[in-house]
Design goal:
- The chain is an all-beta fold and 206 residues long.
- It is 0% helix and 50% strand.
- The chain is built from no helices and 18 strands.
- It has strands at residues 9-13, 26-30, 37-42, 45-46, 52-60, 68-73, 76-79, 83-86, 92-99, 107-115, 123-125, 129-131, 134-140, 149-153, 159-161, 165-170, 176-183, 189-199.
- It has a 5-stranded mixed β-sheet, with no helix packed on it.
- Strand 14 and strand 15 form a beta hairpin.
- The radius of gyration is 33 Å and the shape is rod-shaped.
């Protein structure tokens, strides 16, 4: 006999011998475990080259602890514990498959993970050379909707934050590393470096 009860079921079981005589019946109670359900917490947006971190926050149903976990990213097995840290190369679907020590149907829960499009950070300078002292204006032309903070390191110890255009006076000759760093709402950090080189004054003969 094969049956697939969907709720607690009582079966009356008896045996019949070769003469056709039935034994006394015996009650067999079949209890059905609740379905397995899991919940997970993970990032839905990550930066290029950084891991997506996830964890199981709750599992119930089935035969109970211990449960078996399998994490998949776009169908590829990437972990077998209750936490995951995996660096995907493309956006895709992160899934958790949860099973127990019995034959309770496996629970599957999935979520989309998107890799944020990188920002190609560039900025301009009205000049990169000049006779010192020289004032140079730098301009960040990136759409401000793409980032939440901008920071300038101007190579001579000066720093500026929040302005898309900065002007700096260089009092000494040399080569200065000017850096613009942008940070997105997802915490992605992108940087651009430019060299500025004020030169000594030209001396004219009197």
């Amino acid at each position: 006999m094969t049956d697939n009860p969907l709720e607690v079921t009582i079966y009356q079981v008896y045996a019949t011998n070769e003469d056709g005589c039935d034994s006394d019946s015996m009650a067999v109670i079949v209890e059905i475990f609740d379905p397995i359900t899991s919940t997970i917490d993970h990032q839905d947006m990550i930066c290029t080259g950084t891991p997506v971190n996830g964890e199981v926050t709750l599992t119930s149903g089935g035969t109970g602890f211990p449960y078996s976990y399998e994490w998949q990213f776009d169908g590829q097995n990437v972990g077998v514990t209750d936490t995951i840290s995996y660096i995907p190369s493309v956006s895709g679907e992160l899934c958790l498959l949860t099973s127990d020590q019995c034959e309770t149907p496996t629970d599957t829960i999935c979520g989309l993970v998107t890799i944020v499009t990188p920002i190609n950070v560039v900025f301009t300078a009205d000049t990169t050379k000049g006779c010192y002292p020289v004032e140079i204006t730098y301009t960040n032309g990136i759409d401000e909707a793409l980032f939440v903070t901008q920071q300038w390191w101007l190579g001579n110890g000066s720093f500026d934050a929040g302005n898309s255009m900065v002007t700096e006076a260089y009092e000494e000759p040399g080569v200065y590393d000017v850096t613009l760093t942008l940070t997105t709402a997802q915490g992605c950090i992108y940087t651009c470096l430019l060299y500025t080189s004020p030169s000594p004054r030209d001396r004219q003969k009197s």
